[in-house]
Design brief:
Number of domains: 2
Helix content: 55-70%
Strand order of the largest sheet: 1-2-3
Number of helices: 4
Radius of gyration: 17 Å
Oligomer: single chain
Structural class: alpha+beta
Strand content: 5-15%
Distance between the termini: 42 Å
Order of helices and strands: EEEHHHH
């Protein structure tokens, strides 16, 4: 991989794989998290505890991430429900989405 300065005005550097695809920090982290959660030994409570010990700004960013995960999983719930499929996690996201919309700043 080589580092390419794609957006110099935003000071963003991307890692470019052979073939020209771009892998952002967010994409790499999401893929690593998805891979970790597929393990039988993954402990979500332990990860949450570790993340909760971060500085307040970091916690705000993590909660923003959680909010977006809920948003997109609610969208998936709606499309999966139409096809007759759903899960406890998707149903939870659907309920949390409505709770979050009541809270809006």
């Amino acid at each position: 991989m080589e580092t390419v300065d794609r957006l110099p005005h935003l000071m963003v550097k991307w890692k470019v794989k052979k073939g020209g695809t771009v892998a952002s920090k967010e994409q790499k982290l999401a893929e690593a998290l998805a891979e970790a959660t597929e393990s039988h030994w993954f402990n979500p409570a332990q990860m949450a505890r570790i993340l909760s010990d971060q500085p307040i700004y970091t916690l705000d960013q993590i909660m923003e991430l959680v909010k977006w995960i809920i948003h997109y999983q609610d969208q998936r719930y709606n499309s999966e429900r139409i096809n007759g499929r759903t899960s406890k996690g998707l149903m939870l996201a659907h309920q949390l989405k409505s709770d979050i919309s009541k809270y809006k700043d």
